[in-house]
């Protein structure tokens, strides 16, 4: 009886052997293919952008792209392709957004990690997650139909499309990101250090600002840089509420255009495949991609290089 | 011997304590700011949109007249696109995660893939739109179709799914794997019958959250050329389509304020869908988090 069971197992094993061996060899290959696809995606992005940008620069000189101070691609006859107005529009939105997101985000992070009780934290963190999960088009709608009218009450001559309103709303959108990344950095500072400072008679505020903040600085700065990258790439809020007037200006009440909203404007219009305008979105996209890539690399460098190990 | 001059400490104590209390209030206020914004945003959208939200809103196509405008095409378009995104991104994402966690050796190539994934997560969504426009719409000649849009979005959310699945696979206890090997199972058998079932709740939670990100994305699909005025439902994977965020964008960018109310109604539908998906994710997380 015992022999026969052993025999049965052996028979079954023999039967499965070829199939099993085959699977053992096949599966890692298939899975590797999935993993390689993510590399291919990056290559695809870089390749697409480079090829189409080269086509663009064969029609518009690269010198004009970087020296011309006007961006009027829709001018019949003599269009201008100078990237600076789009970059200035993007940076203006980014600066306004950071002026909102950094103070509020950091303050929220300090409150959550240094002051809040567990109960309060369990209540507030999901709210921040909800804010982070709201689609950007909804924020765009909010900027156009609520924030702009409110601002118009304060600044009487504010046009419907301006840089201030989308800038503020992009900042609000980023608050949860800054708050949660900074809070992660601050709560990874060991409690022993806090207790040491409290034991010496420091107040909670002094502990937060003079002990925890410096210790978590690399993570906090990295969260700021990631937030900047996010603001640069933000599309729908600025498209809906920022207007479509590329302008080299420092006035936040004027209508502007960002790199992202230019790309959307072209894709909504009727510029056909093969026109110079069609290729221009790739040149703008390349500039945008480089900006965000550099920001992301800086963030990774900061958080790796300056990490405090405990 | 008194090393600390008590009177000096005392004289400063009052201001230090006050500073602490005042700033605690300031930090709390800043945190509450987010809550206040959320409440205002939801209140505004509900009061504006609720008037247009009725059964007809789901049965009508886009229209030039606000009272006749509906979200039918966009609603079904979103479902179609999700039908492409969900299988594609889950298979690719979970496959990548299993490879990286179970098979990959610790060498430079693996580090490179890992670094590449975290960088992909930081690429603006509109750049994915440019990729989709060139590769799927033009090179692979899919046209401005559901398939092209779905594949583009799959690539966009792939990094989120990979990272979530990796964490989930990593958190399966080593003992389970060892027990399986000890019973004579092969590596793939162990992964398929032990690791994956144990990791599935985490994978599903991450997957649903990633899908809810995809359903709210507008920019990449605008680039692909999802239409803004559609009066039919997609019939197959190569049909033209529109999705809810794009329909909302279209209504928002019209000058008539009546259309803003219609947009608000659309936003309510979109947010309701997100709420449902997030609740499912939370339910899965809570149901399975006690085991292991």
Name the CATH homologous superfamily of the largest domain in chain A.
MetI-like
Output the CATH class name of the largest domain in chain A. Answer: Mainly Alpha
| Unreliable sequence segments of chain A | none
Which structural class fits the helix and strand makeup of chain B? mainly alpha
For the record, the CATH class of chain B is Mainly Alpha
Subunit arrangement of the protein: heterodimer
Rg of chain A over CA atoms, rounded to whole Å, is 27 Å
Shape descriptor of chain A: flat
Number of DSSP strands of chain A? 2
Please tell me the total number of domains of chain B: 1
Which architecture name of chain B does CATH use?
Answer: Orthogonal Bundle
Total helices of chain A: the number is 12
Largest sheet of chain B: none
CATH topology of chain B: MetI-like fold
Largest sheet of chain A: 2 strands, antiparallel
- Average pLDDT reading of chain A: 88
Q: N-to-C SSE series of chain B?
A: HHHHHHHHHHH
Q: What is the number of helices of chain B?
A: 11
- Percent helix of chain A, as a range, is over 70%
What's the gyration radius of chain B in Å? Answer: 25 Å
Shape of chain B: flat
Set down the secondary structure blueprint.
The complex is a heterodimer of chains A (310) and B (292).
Chain A: H1 2-59, H2 62-67, E1 71-72, E2 80-81, H3 84-115, H4 118-133, H5 136-154, H6 164-187, H7 191-199, H8 204-215, H9 217-233, H10 236-241, H11 259-268, H12 276-305
Antiparallel strand pairs in A: 1-2
Chain B: H1 6-49, H2 55-59, H3 72-103, H4 108-120, H5 125-139, H6 146-170, H7 174-182, H8 187-216, H9 219-224, H10 244-252, H11 257-288
Task: Describe, in plain words, how this protein is organized in 3D.
The complex is a heterodimer of chains A (310) and B (292). Chain A has 2 domains: 2-59; 80-305, MetI-like fold (Orthogonal Bundle). Helix content of chain A is 77%, strand content 1%. Chain A is an all-alpha fold and 310 residues long. A two-stranded antiparallel sheet of chain A has the order 1-2. Chain A has helices spanning 2-59, 62-67, 84-115, 118-133, 136-154, 164-187, 191-199, 204-215, 217-233, 236-241, 259-268, 276-305; strands at residues 71-72, 80-81. Chain B has a single domain, classed as Orthogonal Bundle (MetI-like fold). In chain B, helix 3 crosses helix 10 and helix 8 packs antiparallel against helix 11. The mean pLDDT of chain B is 86. Chain B has helices spanning 6-49, 55-59, 72-103, 108-120, 125-139, 146-170, 174-182, 187-216, 219-224, 244-252, 257-288. With 292 residues, chain B is mainly alpha-helical. Helix content of chain B is 75%, strand content 0%. Chain B is flat, with a radius of gyration of 25 Å. Chain B is built from 11 helices and no strands. Chains A and B meet through helix 1, helix 3, helix 4, helix 5 and helix 6 of A and helix 1, helix 3, helix 4, helix 5 and helix 6 of B.
